[in-house]
Amino acid sequence: MQKYINIIGLEIHIEPNTKSKMFCSCPQDHFGAKPNTQTCPICLGLPGALPYANKEAIKKTIKLGLALGSKISEKSKFYRKHYFYPDLPKGYQISQKDNPFCVGGSLMSKKINHIHLEEDAGKLIHSGDESLIDFNRSGCALIEIVTEPVFNNVSEVLSFVKELQLIARYLDISNADMEKGTMRLEANISLKALLGGGRMDSREVGNLPDYKVELKNINSFKFLEKALKAEIERQTKALDNSEKLKQETRGYDEKTKTTFSQRTKTDSDDYRYFPEPDISPINSTEYIVHSTKIPELPQAKRDRFMDMYKLPKDYVEILISDLERANYFEQAVKLAPDLTKSIADLMINKNMDNEYPEPAGFVKKIVELTKIEYASTSDLEQAIKDVLFENPNIVDSYINGKGQVIGFLIGQVQKVLQGKGDPKMINVKLIESLQKNI
Amino acid sequence: MTKLTKKDVLHVAELSNLKLTDSEIKKFLPQLTKIIKFVGTLSEVDTTKIEPTSQTTKLVNALREDVTTSSNSLNIDEYFKVKAILSKRT
Amino acid sequence: MNIPLTIKETQDGLKSKKFSAVELVDAYLAQIKKYNSEYNVFLTVTEELAYAKAKEIDRGDKTSHLAGVIVSYKDIFLTKGVRTTAGSKILESYIPPYSATSVSRIEAAGAIPIGKLYCDAFAHGASGENSDFGRTLNPWGKEYVPGGSSSGSAASVSAGMSLISLGSDTGGSTRQPANFCNLVGLKPTYGVIPRYGVISMSSSLDTIGSFAHTVDDIEIMFDVMRGTDGYDSTVSNFKKPNIKNKFKLGIAKEYFIDGLDSEVENMINDVKKTYEKIGIEVVELTLPHTKYMVPVYYIIQPAEVSSNLGRFDGIRYGSARQSFGEEAKRRIMIGSYVLSAGYYDAYYEKAMKVRTKIINDFDEAFKTVDAIISPVSPTPAFKLGANTSDPLKMYLEDIYTTTANLVGIPGLAIPSTFSKSGLPIGFQLLGPRFSEHQLFELGKKYHKEIDYKPKIAL
């Protein structure tokens, strides 16, 4: 019997694939760059430097919001969020608070609280009695998706983040790569006791526990799963022992397979937000929403592929999980609609699309392959002769107007040919032979 | 709220990442109390239905095109260093 | 040689070979060497740079707008390769890697940079007494303050150590020292001259100020520095408007408060009469929220100060936060307090709303008048030390100046006369946003009528 219900919310950070950073013209892509080689007075927070907001980053944020059904705020602002940490050069992060670009929305029926845009901090590397700071990432555009605390189990969380990753790719917002840090996850989690029979006390519905634990620095889907499971286990044990759980931030240690406390909430968690005076408000509706087109999203493509191509579910999932391959598949199918099944087979089981940059080349190859496999015309004609000879009754039925028996005869011919007959050719030749009998 | 306490001053100093000496705290406490009381006179102004002003330019959408330039880039090419940071960021 | 007092005199002299640019530098440097140690005007003298630029001018082009003009900068303007301290120990040895847009534009127009000036640390102050490096004296009377926070800028021009100077104006820091030192000082419309490269004090209020002896020179500086730069997104461009020939001015009845010095009050009445004499109507008007200017200002400004000074953590530049002076710490504390949880709505949000009401007052006023005549400060320059023990008393010095910053409109400080004790007295004209050229015209008309002659104090 389930004693507790898990209450999990997510904060997902995505670095959009803009060319330049959020507030300066340094490169946004910092993966693998030498430390502090992609910096300027603005992202280093030098005296006198001012932010200049990147239009494209705002467009991408709003595009994501539109795709997830968020309400786009008519007038948005940036805010300053203050705290002190060595990787935050200005002593504040330019972020959003009231009227973020996107409010509400949902994905896989999980409610989203809001989506906002902010700048990233630098990177701190701990090394002995020193900490090293690299500001290449400082000031990079960062989209944050905040969900409501609506997940009750780990698998829901995993499918949500994977689907969100796919959407980011479909929208060309970001490659949302966990390994490169262009997608980063944080989960907050708390447990709530259930009554006997796994029901929730009706007075408790909608109430959240008085604590939540934030899990940070999760850099892969696998870690997310492990960290959540470990944390659920820890909290379950604590609650079983009637321990009081506290509000804190925890990390996950792969060696011990447990989470560990990083930081407890303190008095200094007062970010003193105020509207960023250096940046004018943004009127998104007029300016961006009207010109933003949302392409077909993964779920729509999934449904359409099932419906149009009659492929097995796992085939569809593989194809749509990579937008480029999905497009490749469709282009190939357009060239040879009859070969749909073979195209899918060869792509999924043999990765043959990798060998042919153009779908046309791939299709040509398939046609060649299938041709070679067909039985020769003389073998085919011999097989038809044999089948007709062995089934005089069926031939009679045909002559007497029972056209539907042709299906049975085709099957018999294929059997003789061990499935290597060209179905079109069998059909043509069979009818020819039958006509001769009339 | 008019009278600040020593605790308030210490809290605000912590928020501001300032370490004040005892004599500074002693000096600031009455000064800040007086100033906060003075600026508190705004409470008598009726601001119902008034929108706050955070910028006077009246500009909207003053945004930058997404291009990179190196015209003001600073290539430092080494790490900045601080004494080991043990506490985690917020 | 006699130091020229206007850009025109400078350029006429250069063109007619009355003097060379190098000789000009000699003359200003001589003045600096003579008085600087006593008056604390220059923190850094850029002698080599000045001579190099002077030689360039002597060899080549003398036609650009500021060719040969000796300029000095408040030490919150970043100057690439030249130490910039903000008047604070925290940046005592900071060498910036880039220059402010305004500095680049002034120098591209041919000006010769002669050095960096004393100022109240991080521009916090109204007297020049808050510098971490010593207080600046008023060239018109050395027991008096030169005003602040652009103390060195005013002192430099009025003492003949530079012809023009750049300062900043967040709550009066250009107009008040200009007023205390017999100079023309401009606080432009917010969002006309880029702030990029000038150390931020209060981002929604900061503007780039200009000091000169005449309105003509201020106009030249203004036109050289204004316009978008691709770094300050609050800046917009505007076309110089056609100047009309019929004006109407106003004076707010709320300006005549208890603390207003009688000599200043008389001067305001004289200014009114002067304008009326040349056929410009002056009417009384009301700005009902005048008494809330300073409280609004002393919430918004410290709040933004507390934010802007967050970057000084000693990691990438400068020294650690303990090195902040007392006034900086005080403002950071006030600012953090009014922004902190539980107080934001009562203080910061409230101040932003009253700010809106103040703006509405001015929008209303400018429906009937072209500009407003106002005192700059309630008294002429006060004595050194007079206000240092009570920060609130010092804050009240800003009563007439914070308006223009809160509303985002231009204010032009114009010298008028001298008090019985020999101190300069002047007034300011406040106009709608982007009305600088109209204010210049009104200022020129006034000076023409009183036959104003620029002079230096030392």
- Span from first to last CA of chain A? 74 Å
| Secondary structure: number of strands of chain B | 1
Succession of helices and strands of chain A: EHEEEEEEEEEEHEEHEEEEHHHHHHHHHH
Structural class of chain B: mainly alpha
Number of strands of chain A: 17
Total helical elements of chain B: 2
Tell me the helix content of chain A.
Answer: 25-40%
How is the biggest beta sheet of chain B arranged? none
What does it look like?
- The complex is a heterotrimer of chains A (438), B (90) and C (458).
- Chain A is an alpha+beta fold and 438 residues long.
- Chain A has helices at 55-67, 154-170, 221-240, 284-287, 298-309, 313-320, 323-335, 340-350, 359-373, 377-390, 392-399, 406-416, 423-437; strands spanning 4-14, 71-72, 75-76, 79-82, 92-95, 102-103, 106-107, 110-119, 123-127, 130-134, 141-147, 183-193, 213-218, 248-253, 258-264, 274-275, 282-283.
- Chain A has three domains: 4-291, no CATH class; 298-373, no CATH class; 377-437, Arc Repressor Mutant, subunit A, CATH 1.10.10.410.
- In chain A, 37% of the residues lie in helices and 20% in strands.
- In chain A, strands 1, 2, 6, 7, 8, 11, 12, 13, 14 and 15 form a ten-stranded mixed β-sheet that branches.
- Chain A is elongated, with a radius of gyration of 30 Å.
- Chain B is flat.
- Chain B has a domain at 6-42.
- The two termini of chain B are 29 Å apart.
- Chain B contains two helices and one strand.
- Chains in contact: A-B, A-C, B-C.
- At the A-B interface, helix 1, strand 9, strand 10, strand 16 and strand 17 of A face helix 1 and strand 1 of B.
- Strand 10 of chain A pairs antiparallel with strand 1 (80-83) of chain B, so a sheet runs across the interface.
What's this entry about, in short?
Chain B has helices at residues 6-15, 22-39, and one strand spanning 80-83. Chain B is mainly alpha-helical and 90 residues long.
How do the strands and helices of this protein lay out in sequence?
The complex is a heterotrimer of chains A (438), B (90) and C (458).
Chain A lengths: L3 E11 L40 H13 L3 E2 L2 E2 L2 E4 L9 E4 L6 E2 L2 E2 L2 E10 L3 E5 L2 E5 L6 E7 L6 H17 L12 E11 L19 E6 L2 H20 L7 E6 L4 E7 L9 E2 L6 E2 H4 L10 H12 L3 H8 L2 H13 L4 H11 L8 H15 L3 H14 L1 H8 L6 H11 L6 H15 L1
Parallel strand pairs in A: 13-14
Antiparallel strand pairs in A: 1-11, 1-12, 2-6, 3-17, 4-5, 4-16, 6-8, 7-8, 8-11, 9-10, 12-13, 14-15
Helix pairs in contact in A: 2-3, 5-6, 7-9, 10-12, 10-13, 12-13
Chain B lengths: L5 H10 L6 H18 L40 E4 L7
Chain C lengths: L6 H9 L5 H19 L2 E4 L1 H13 L10 E5 L26 H8 L3 E6 L33 H8 L5 E6 L5 H6 L3 E4 L19 E6 L2 H11 L22 E5 L9 H16 L3 E5 L7 H16 L17 H14 L5 H21 L5 E5 L15 H5 L6 H6 L3 E8 L5 E7 L5 H14 L9
Parallel strand pairs in C: 2-3, 2-4, 7-8, 7-9
Antiparallel strand pairs in C: 1-3, 4-6, 5-6, 5-10, 9-11, 10-11
Helix pairs in contact in C: 2-3, 7-14, 9-10, 9-11
